[in-house]
Amino acid sequence: MSRNLLIFGLILASFPFSSLGDEVGGNGLEIPAVTVEGPTFGGKQLWTDELIFHDWRIQRHTWTGHYRLLDDKDYRRAWGSFEHCNEQLESLKQELGLPPMRGRVVVALHGLLRTRESMQGICDYFHEHGDYTIVNFSYASTRNELDQHARSFARVMEHMGPKVTEINLVAHSLGNLVIRHYLGDQTNLAQGKRPDPRIHRIVMLAPPNNGAEFARKFADNKIFQTIWGKTGLELANEWETLEPRLAVPACEFAVIAGGKGEPSGSNPLLTGDDDFVVSVEETRLPGARDFRVLPVLHSSIMDDETVRECALKFFWHGYLVAEDLRQPIPRAPVNVRLRE
Predict the structure, then answer these.
(1) Could you tell me where the beta strands, DSSP code E, fall in 1-151?
(2) What is the pLDDT of residues 251-293, one digit of tens each?
(3) In CATH terms, is domain 2-325 a member of 3.30.450.40?
(4) What is the pTM (predicted TM-score) of this model?
């Protein structure tokens, strides 16, 4: 067991942690609506975006339920209800002459224990080389359950703006399950309910599409329970309940997994090839238009130059390397019993 804990510690060490402080209160606390400018004190594992306008964002606090408006320098411009923060944002748009978001957008979602800073490099790449408007979604990955992350993501999508014509999604690890939960929540064919039709293509980076063996191995570990929080426990103990709520994207999507390209990977605790946290087999999702295994580790897959190039190619052309080199993952055949 000591060997397992050592490996667990090494994996945790690869994830940078953020401060948990900033305007913390108790549940149900009455927070006045105030317009007060000033720096924040981090707290990125306690705040979740519910509206993003360029680099401005309205965030909800996990514990108190109150909101704050941050500008493009992460300075707080307002505090209180969502309506108050949105009113302040609309006023500042007029005062500062902020243009609406328009055209093609890439929305990025980070993974468990991470913050939006972990996706900033790949976002900058898409902006520089693809001329995309960037929406870098930040959520309290360890403090809420997956359905809450998906609801907040839905609000971000709802506030994208009418001048946005195309939306591409790129996510690391847990962020892919947030997307799939959102897609499931937004789909009800009987009621004519579908996800945002502007969603064009999705690139999944190291997604635990089939659960996480690593999480299951440490499900009873107190350190795991404390640090990985509610969502980590869902992956460990509630996958059978969670999986049916995760939709397979109807749009074109690709999966990039990390691995050595060998029968065994970097982590002896996992079955088969892996990126040290998620196995290659756990990333596979039938219906993918393209699939690729690259020699990268889980915590830094989004920083790899080849990964970024492949993701941009997929957004442009629908393949990771070339059309004739696509490696699709076929959907399981549907057995149809003919009437005699």
Answers:
(1) 38-39, 47-53, 56-61, 67-70, 75-80, 103-109, 133-137
(2) 999 999 999 999 999 999 999 999 999 999 999 999 999 999 9
(3) no
(4) 0.88
